[in-house]
Amino acid sequence: MALVVQKYGGTSVGDPERIRAVAEHIARTRAAGNDVVVVVSAMGKFTDELLRMADAVSATRPPRELDMLLTAGERISMALVSMALADLGVEAASFTGSQAGIITDTDHTRAKILEMRPERIREALEVGQVAVVAGFQGVSTERDITTLGRGGSDVTAVALAAALGADVCEIYTDVTGVFSADPRVAPRARRLSRVSFDEMMEIAATGGRVLMLRSVEFARRHGVPLVVRSSFTWEPGTWIVEEDPTMEEAVVSAITDDTSEAKVTVGGVPDRPGVAARLFRALAEAGINVDMIVQNTGANGMTDISFTVAKTDLGAAREKCLAIKDEINAAQVSTDDAIGRVSIVGAGMKSSPGVTALMFETLSDNGINIEMISTSSIRISCVVRADRVGDAVRCLHTAFGLDAVQS
Ligand code: ADP
Ligand code: ASP
Ligand code: MG
Questions:
Q1: Fewer CB within 10 Å, N or C, the chain?
Q2: Which residues contact residue 282 at a Cβ distance below 8 angstroms, ignoring those fewer than 6 apart?
Q3: 152 CB under 6 A from ligand 1?
């Protein structure tokens, strides 16, 4: 008998019919003799709907109250899934994140898990129940309700799997696994049967939202066997695994895209030590995460610094830069939210010269201008115009030989 954690995303529990289908799969897993813990997301796009409601009544959206509101979505799903299970004769009980013992810090809307105390989940399993847990939420050390950031139900599932010592954590979603590109952007993308943790982290960090980055990091750190599968076809899916040294690595495994960031340029700053430090300290103090950074070659002792931030942080980043503009003697601050990032990811890139050249040639052949570049040992990212991101993904997918063979 195994302990299985199953997470169902928004589309998977999007309507009553989907909820009944999910309940049937849980019932089958239980009937096969497994203990089952289920983690659910809010139905469909309900979290977005709740955010719109918050916007409609409040310009300030106090983070504590926003979290209280957002956790409502997952509560609806957990109760409905438990009811559907009851109708199938499966004993089930639902639990909020707080009841499941998910203790977080106090950083509302993007709280981090500090401790797992899933006693009530263990008790439910001991009496033969399926435990259905609301994803994406916890309770802070100040006893307030928190959320874990968008896509956070993946983290709930992996954290529970780690704390309970589960045999597998199954992430059920609306695609059949992790693909060589977002299948909505590149119709010729292929499902990968396995992908290494290193690659999955790069994919998740650069726009492949199929798994939230923090869930991948958590799974690796705690050795949680992780698989992404479809709740529509129940096919085997994609395993996230440690790199196997006996296997030949693909040079490029996946192409990702991300249009969630914007660019800020602080222009005409003196090219001397301390300027960048002052700028990025100010941003850090405002809690703004900076992603790519480019400093242009100076001329006449002056230079430009450009960086990207989440679009949701753009207003705050601009304000911060304007606030210290005079202090760092900058000439101007400009922003651009019509950018996108395309990345190529592959563990075999480390030992293959020519990958960068092929990426740049392919973009150039397709008339796509590169505005910023960043790399890791297994990833190359380019910032391009947002309206060319889809084209960039598709031409790179073809150039790196990833297109599925058309039947
Ligand atoms: P869920 O609600 O189940 O958590 P998400 O919308 O968060 O689902 O993630 C699934 C989506 O991720 C897919 O519908 C797909 O469009 C997108 N996606 C982006 N990149 C990839 C990729 N490389 N492989 C698979 N899906 C991807
Ligand atoms: N419902 C939350 C969101 O939409 C959490 C999740 O689905 O993982 O971000
Ligand atoms: Mg998700």
A1: C
A2: 320, 321, 323, 324
A3: no
Q: How many angstroms is it from 179 CA to the middle of ligand 2?
A: 20
Indicate the top mutation candidate among 47, 78, 96 to test ligand 2's pocket, ranked by most ligand atoms within 8 A of CB: 47
Q: Where are the domains of the chain?
A: 3-174
Residue 101: CB within 6 Å of ligand 2?
no
* Side-chain half-sphere exposure of 285, counting CA atoms within 13 A: 11
Q: What is the pLDDT of residues 236-289, one digit of tens each?
A: 999 999 987 777 778 999 999 999 999 999 999 998 889 999 999 999 999 899
What are φ and ψ of residue 288, in 5° steps? -95, 125
What's the 173 CA to ligand 1 centre distance in angstroms?
7
The structure tokens 């009944």 sit at 20
pTM for the model = 0.95
Distance 210 CA to ligand 3 centre (A): 6
Look at the block and give the residue holding tokens 């992780």: 226
- Ligand 1 pocket residue status of 175, Cβ below 6 Å: yes
Residues 53, 62 contacting (CB under 8 angstroms): no
Q: How far apart are CA 197 and CA 195, in angstroms?
A: 7
Residue 73 has pLDDT above 70, yes or no: yes
Question: Left if phi > 0, otherwise alpha if psi is -120 to 50, otherwise beta: which for 249?
Answer: beta
Ligand at shortest distance from the CA of 149: 2
| CATH superfamily membership of 3-174 | Acetylglutamate kinase-like (3.40.1160.10)
Tell me the CA–centroid distance for residue 27 and ligand 1, in Å. 25
Closest to 356 (Cα-Cα) out of 340, 338, 374: 374
Whether 18 contacts 81, CB under 8 Å: no
